[in-house]
Amino acid sequence: MDFLRKYWSDFGLLVAVGVGLYLMIQWSTIPVIERLLWLSFVAILVHQYEEYRWPGYFAGLFNGLIFKSSHPERYPLNPHSAMIINLVIAYVFYLVPLLFPTVVWLGLAPILMGFFQFIWHGIFANLKAKMLYNPGLFAVIVFHIPIGVWYIRHIISTGMVTTSDWIIGTGYFIVAVYILIVKGNMWLKNENSRYTFTRQQLGPYVHKS
Question: What is the pLDDT of residues 155-193, one digit of tens each?
Fold first, then answer.
């Protein structure tokens, strides 16, 4: 478990590379909707690597700047909770739609989460940090948004999406964000956690209080 806790984001990047190679080789044989869902899956894996490995100081920004924690190395987010939350997001929320690619609302929810990431990383966090960049924003701009626009254009132009899909997909997205991100961080927080982030993962927020 310690190995996974330390290297889960690196494993994710390897998976992203593997999926990328698969798409390159099989591109013409894969239905468009499945290509887009695979690319969306790649986007979240790159996003998580950017947040927790390189440059990797999302944890410091989240704990030290957003929550003004006196223990930014482990509270409210810690390496154990970060691993659990992010693995569920990537390998359940983003990957399950590939098992049912024609169930549009199921794939739409992760796409909407990708747009939501811009609000968090591109606006909220940057305003808080008074910066133009924070870990995760690169993946949002380069992957999440273009893939999301492509996905939405595709489901509209092909007539795949219905009003019910928009309603259910949006509701599912909101519930997922609330449970996986908002409540997930609260349920798993532990001010006395023995799991601590590295100095690199805290970045310039190592001494914030």
Answer: 999 999 999 999 999 999 999 999 999 998 889 999 999
Q: Is the dihedral of CA 128, 124, 180, 16 positive or negative?
A: negative
* Beta strands in the chain, from DSSP E residues, in sequence order: none
Q: What is the largest CA-CA distance in the chain?
A: 53
Instruction: Say if residue 199 is exposed, middle or buried (CB neighbours under 10 Å; 0-12, 13-18, 19+).
Output: exposed
User: What's the rounded Cα separation, in Å, for the pair 29 and 35?
Assistant: 10
Give the total residue count for the chain: 209
CA–CA separation, 25 and 70 (whole Å): 49
| Share above pLDDT 90 across residues of the chain, in percent, rounded to a whole number | 93
Structure tokens at 190: 């532990």
Q: Around Cβ 68, how many Cβ atoms within 10 Å? A: 10
User: How many CA atoms are closer than 13 Å to the CA of 173, on its beta-carbon side?
Assistant: 19
Cβ 144 vs Cβ 110: under 8 Å:
no
d(CA 173, CA 152) in angstroms, rounded, equals 15
- Residue 178's CB is within 10 A of a number of other CB atoms, namely 11
